[in-house]
Amino acid sequence: MVQQRPFLHRRGSTLLLAVVVACGLLFLSKNIVTRYDIWQHHRLWGQQYLMNYRYMLSVSSMGAPDLNQRMLVEVHNNQPTLAIPMDSQRLITSAEQAQYTSIDRLFQVMADAINRRVDYIRIDYDPHLSYPMEISVDPSARQVDDEIHYSIRDFEVLP
Fold first, then answer.
1. Cα–Cα nearest to 148, from 140, 158, 138, 156
2. b/e per residue, 103-134, with b = 16+ CB within 10 A?
3. Domains of the chain with CATH codes
4. What digits encode the pLDDT tens for the residues 99-139?
């Protein structure tokens, strides 16, 4: 009986190692698929050559109420030119404008979330133009109210 214990211990260690490796591979494969999906839609968005557009952006977070806002965004020559808050009198800071106010920047926000290895990210894309219509990010499933949600509505191509 004494000789069987080391065998069982090695077998259990091997099984534990296999489970850890499998979980790691599942995590990596999920991120690879999501990263490819973001890349593919960003490429399709770029092929549209849309330089002038307007949309309504809503950002919401239960854990950071100061992030909650709706803004009308205009982009001309692929540069944000206008970000008007719709729900409050609070002015949009230049940092917020730089972070959220172009479709290309929102693609970067999604890629940054993947690089930070968030626990959950869901992205819904426009079927025709490939811009992200809904982005939901949960950095940590173990924490409450750290989720952030981006929603793009009323997208309009400008002349």
1. 138
2. beebbeebeebbeeebeebebebbeebbbbbe
3. 4-157 (2.50.20)
4. 667 899 999 989 999 888 888 899 999 999 999 999 999 88
Question: Is-above-0.90 flag for pTM?
Answer: no
